Amino acid sequence: MTVRRLRPHATTIFSEVTQLAVRYGAVNLGQGFPDTDGPPSMIEAAVRAMREGHNQYPPGTGVPELRHALVAHETAHTGLVHDPDTEVLVTVGATEAIAGAVLGLVEPHDEVAVIEPSYDSYAATVAMAGATRRPARMVRSGDRFRLDVDSLRAAFSPRTRAVLVNSPHNPTGAVLPREDLEQIAALCREFDAIAISDEVYEHLTYDDNEHVSIATLPGMSERTLRISSAGKMLNCTGWKIGWVTGPAGLIAGVRTAKQYLSYTAGTPLQLAVAHALSHEDEWIRALRVQMQDRRDQLVGILTGLGVDLAVTQGTYFLTADPRPLGVTDAASWCLELPEKVGVAAVPFAPFTDTYSAEWSHLVRFAFCKRPEVLAEAGRRLQGLAT
Ligand SMILES: *Cc1c(COP(=O)(O)O)cnc(C)c1O
Predict the structure, then answer these.
(1) Distances from the Cα of 41 to the Cαs of 21, 174, 315, 335, in angstroms?
(2) What's the whole-number average pLDDT of the chain?
(3) pTM above 0.85, yes or no
């Protein structure tokens, strides 16, 4: 009964893999959420806010404490300066910020460039807006993934209203280098398009990789919506506190759509995130080191099995190529794994459609789990060798 424009997005292999993981008691490295809590002071701040009676609707744009804290945090980390009253909007996770941006700023006759593989909400959101999605793609370049700039140029046209950018990138684990972002920015300026930049992993970059926000490139602050979220920054994906910053004119469009999607949510959680952004920079820095160690642990496990890996520069994810194990169809392998060895992972399939054939052999493993959980996954994966 689902409307035609959403039918292609009705079910994904994510839910199938999750069901199988539950049925077989698998260690679930398919889902991208951490299994430890955020800073204790943040949890206490949420409890305190509830006890002190902050339990009713917050202002439509978000509680002022959070809007002020997040612009200060953004300035400290990127140098961008936004007005907490007109250039910031608190949303129900990054997901609602993305949906609000597309629904509030893209007309049905417009086109949106989407770089595959991409977070699964992008395609569905463009479909909800009734707009046309124009695919571009990432490519494997040596031991990592980069933007295929030519494919993005081909995806732009005079009808392009927006490009959805995501760096650090889920699912490949790539951190787009400044040169790639400059190419995207040049296309945005040439075609007078906006960048909707999903930066939820902005603090999770490893080794000497540095996150650059496309909003900081020349001519881009006036045409970029920068989206982030407390979920990945502070280990609270279930709180769904996200935000978007950008020029007032663009924020007004997002706000208009958001007003009728959720209106508002999470007053005490917004206050707690405000506290964490002001007091827990050290914790956020430590998380990055911790996640890098987790990455290295899972790299060790998968490399030991003979799986080929792309270098993960950021995010929660490793891209694995299991063809050395004789696997060619990642989707059917991922459906077998929970029963066969008691581990779950997801294929690239739900992140792509136009270019799905190019990535049908790739699998995404999440490493945002406790070391003992990764170690148990490692023991179970030994079953593949026998
Ligand atoms: C997790 C994730 C999101 C969703 O963020 P929420 O704040 O939970 O809505 C958006 N984009 C990417 C790339 C993600 O990995």
Answers:
(1) 33, 32, 24, 40
(2) 96
(3) yes
